[in-house]
Amino acid sequence: MSHWRALRPVMPILIGASVMLTLSMGIRQTFGLFLQPVTHDIALSVSDFTLAFSLQNLTWGLLQPVMGALVVRLGFRRILVGGALLYLAGLLVLAVAQGMLGFVAGAGLLIGASLACTASAMAQATASRVVPASIRSITLGVITGAGTLGAIVAAPIAQSVTAAHGWRAGVLALAVLASLLLPATWIAGRVDAISIPRTVQDKSADITVSAAIRSAFGRLPFVVMTAAYFVCGMQLLFISTHLPSYLAICGMDPMLGAQALGVIAVFNVAGSLFFGWAGGHWPKLVLLGSIYVSRSLVLGWYFLLPPTPTSTLIFAGLMGFLWLGVGPLVAGAVIEMFGLRWQPMIQGLAFMSHQLGSFLGAFGGGLLFDTYGSYDLAWRLGVVMGLTAGIVQITFALARPSRLAPA
């Protein structure tokens, strides 16, 4: 209880980080709702649409370790607030896009750069800095659980405004919601006034960026975790980008896509809390592999059967429980291996692999659909790769547990 009471002085920072994450992640998870209206309005193909969001994820992933390194030099507040401004700029450019160039610039590059400053890695690094180690895993689970709560608000707003006034008005409505990022990032930036506790300082505290990168990729547990994280990103972005389109093709109510994203958001909270708690009691890398295997089995079950409203919402609930529970586990594993100082950058290196997978999941799914006229091959590849990644992750973690001792 004393550890929880110690959170009171830093609660504004934790709340700011949570709001920042729920807005930046929640809003972007609604973009799949615009696939049908955008492709009809400005004559983009499905693969054109998904290319923009693939570039968003690629930009996010490539810039994540860069922003993590800049946090060490410049502090959190400058990076977080700058990311909030980029998010608003990206939505405004998207709202006035007349073709592929504007669409890619707004939805792809600007919002991708913003997410490197405001999304999961930065929120988790902010929270890790201010909480005791004994409750860090569950706290990261709480923070991560906020990651899709924004979709509960954003998805219905985007769907209803788009249905009434068009997709551009829907994007502008999201921009109004995203303006709350500015106060959230400013408050979360108070973390700069809190120094890393001496008890968690380690040999990595004063090394250079290049030495920290060599240290990360010199540890086999980190390399295996990073490789499996690639498949995680591929699965999640395939679902969030293509599920609304898949339901529309199957003749489902357009609101079902928004409802499914909302259900994912609700169950993600429970899953993130559970895996945050579980990460404090069982090996984090084994839990990660279990998530990948379970997610793949759920994905295979859903796409093997014709979709119905009931099966879609059950699928969304199961997938939501397994959605972002990886976040606290990856963040916790990075801290155990490398300490706190370079966590934002090293976690960013792992996340870069995740986003390369996201690029493949979003763009590859669209390309396969345009080529074959269905999502059959895409989801089958997602299942096989997910099962492989999960089994390898679990096998390696059980075979080499001693390598997971703190650095």
How would you describe this protein?
This protein is globular. The protein has one domain (7-191, 207-401): Up-down Bundle (Growth Hormone, Chain: A), CATH 1.20.1250. The longest helix is centred in the middle third of the chain and has 30 residues, at 220-249. The chain is mostly helical and 407 residues long. The two termini are 28 Å apart. α6 (100-118) runs parallel beside α7, α8 runs antiparallel to α17 and α17 (326-338) packs antiparallel against α18 (343-372). The chain has helices spanning 2-5, 11-28, 35-41, 46-74, 76-95, 100-118, 120-130, 136-145, 149-165, 167-178, 181-188, 209-217, 220-249, 254-278, 284-304, 309-321, 326-338, 343-372, 376-399. The model is unreliable at 199-203 and 402-407 (pLDDT under 50). 79% of the residues lie in helices and 0% in strands.
Q: What characteristics describe this protein?
A:
407 residues, mainly alpha, Growth Hormone, Chain: A, 19 helices, disordered C terminus
CATH topological fold name = Growth Hormone, Chain: A
Please identify the structural class as seen in this structure.
Answer: mainly alpha
Treating each run of at least 4 consecutive H or I residues as one helix, how many helices?
A: 19
Gross geometry: globular
The rounded Rg comes to 20 Å
What would CATH call the architecture?
Answer: Up-down Bundle
Oligomer: single chain
